[in-house]
UniProtKB/TrEMBL annotation:
It is a multi-pass membrane protein. NDH-1 is composed of 14 different subunits. Subunits NuoA, H, J, K, L, M, N constitute the membrane sector of the complex. The keyword NAD applies. It comes from Chryseobacterium edaphi. Belongs to the complex I subunit 3 family. The keyword Amino-acid biosynthesis does not apply. It catalyses: a quinone + NADH + 5 H(+)(in) = a quinol + NAD(+) + 4 H(+)(out). This is NADH-quinone oxidoreductase subunit A. The lineage of its organism: Bacteria, Pseudomonadati, Bacteroidota, Flavobacteriia, Flavobacteriales. Its EC number is 7.1.1.-. The gene is nuoA. NDH-1 shuttles electrons from NADH, via FMN and iron-sulfur (Fe-S) centers, to quinones in the respiratory chain. The immediate electron acceptor for the enzyme in this species is believed to be a menaquinone. Couples the redox reaction to proton translocation (for every two electrons transferred, four hydrogen ions are translocated across the cytoplasmic membrane), and thus conserves the redox energy in a proton gradient. The chain crosses the membrane at residues 6-32, 64-84, 96-114. Keywords: Cell membrane, Membrane, NAD, Quinone, Translocase, Transmembrane, Transmembrane helix, Transport.
Length: 123
């Protein structure tokens, strides 16, 4: 298989990333603390010495997760504005219209989410 030379740095970066993840997971498994299964009192949850009230596995509302996903989505949108802000003169009118289309798509998504009631906490 003959790869162009421009792919070599990408493959090196991907290999380093996969190697880092593998070493981190293996290191955490072998070097991390080992749980003893016999002592249930020692392994129970405590918060500042106060006895536990209820179960720690209570389910969260889906609204919480939906809001978190929407925050990440619209936060990542802001990241894409940085290259445009740095190079807006070089992009010219064509770049301006591309950014307008990008913003319009996100506004459509925002209005869709709003109309579907994803931002209403009272429901």
């Amino acid at each position: 298989m003959n790869l162009p030379e421009s792919y070599i740095p990408i493959l090196i970066q991907a290999g380093v990333a996969i190697g880092f993840v593998a070493i981190s997971l293996l290191g955490a498994h072998f070097l991390g603390p080992q749980q003893k299964k016999g002592n249930s009192v020692k392994n129970s949850s405590w918060e500042c010495g106060i006895p536990v009230e209820g179960n720690a596995r209570t389910p969260f509302s889906i609204k919480y997760f939906l809001t978190a996903v929407l925050f990440v989505l619209f936060d990542i949108e802001i990241v894409f504005f940085y290259p445009y802000a740095v190079n807006f003169r070089e992009f010219g009118l064509e770049g301006f219209f591309a950014v307008l289309m990008f913003v319009a798509i996100f506004f459509l998504a925002f209005f869709y989410v709003w109309k579907r009631g994803a931002l209403d906490w009272d429901k």
